[in-house]
Amino acid sequence: MPLKDGKILVPDDDNYLHPVNLLCLNDDIEIERSKSMTFVCKHISPALAKILGVKSKLKKKISEHYNVMKFGQREDLTTRIHKLLEGYPADEGIFKELLQNADDAGATEIHFVTDYNYYSSAKVFDGNFKELQGPSLLVYNNTSFSEYDLESIQLLGIGGKSENPSETGKYGVGFNAVYHLTDVPSFLTKGEKIDKGKRTLCILDPLCKYATSADKQNPGIRYCNLDGLQRAVPDVFLPYHEDDLMGDEGTIFRFPLRTEESKICDKLIDNEHLTTLLGKFKNESTRSIFFLNHILKIEFSQIVNGKMILDFSVTVNMSKEDIRQKQAFHLKRLHVGEMITKKQQITTEPMFQIQTVMSISVFDIKRETEDEDIWFVVDRIGFNDKAIPKKVSHAYSVGELDLLPQGGVALPYQK
């Protein structure tokens, strides 16, 4: 029976009519019935009930008891992301974007983990979510999202990068390079900067195919009361390997590998392809770490027989004085970036330069060795006393040039 506002009235188990959105199926005896649950009439088949729009018992319990919040990037996403990917090669640059994201967020460690295993889908969300329980890439860093970051990552093409040039990759447009690998990026983040529960799970679903309640208006979802949720759908959390990766604070991204063509990208990613891309990034990871602001360790591992095995790592050691210099340089970058954001003239800003010594240790399980090299690194920002070309000065003054006037060089010490 239709209502004037288009909703459907459906009988409950006592044959009283209710709007369909207030009913649920009695389809899982393991889930305890709550006071708010009203079961649909038992004479209506589950198949027909779902066509009418009746929720499953699990979906009803999750939506009413675990502080579910609407979450997702807001735009015509599939077309926009597809076009964005054209500007980002599907190569090892994807991982450089994630490295830069972590550095701009203030992390000191980042960990790339390949997980080519399949996990139980018995206790997961309804619908197609079970398709995400297969091979994936995990990326952990040891800092959490703030509420501001959680808002920024939902604004496609907007974020730290476009607002402040000193943050070249903090959940800006570059993050979307991960859609070369997956259709459904998600992350589990934990820390004091999160207002709601100190631990939250976010799923971005531009296709509106996998995340519960995802739609074009909110193509994703955020869960906040995770302790209760984890008891209801424990298999959802298994592939994040939280016990192995997460400390008191951190973020675990999970990127289930694309196994079929989609509107986002028609390129499939298999285990061999991902391993090859990560191998190229490993070869460049030593050089990638020279001019970062915070990252001191990059690790690469794989999940084998339920255990996390370290394959490769790059670790930086510096003196306390050199660390202090790096911190001072970072503050200077933030200051100059803020000046550019406010359209202030920076060509008169005095040059700031630091010189540091980095001891870089590289562990490689294939060679069963750990090598150490010493590097002399110079970072500089600002302008020297020489005349600045008028074109450059004008471009900064009118906001046409928003790049940091920054450079650096790294030289190896001879042993």
TrEMBL record:
Signal sequence residues: none
InterPro entries: HATPase_C_sf, SACS/Nov_dom, Sacsin_chaperone_reg
GO MF, one example: Hsp70 protein binding
Superkingdom: Eukaryota
Residue span, Sacsin/Nov domain: 74-307
Name of the protein this chain belongs to: Sacsin/Nov domain-containing protein
Protein's organism: Mytilus edulis
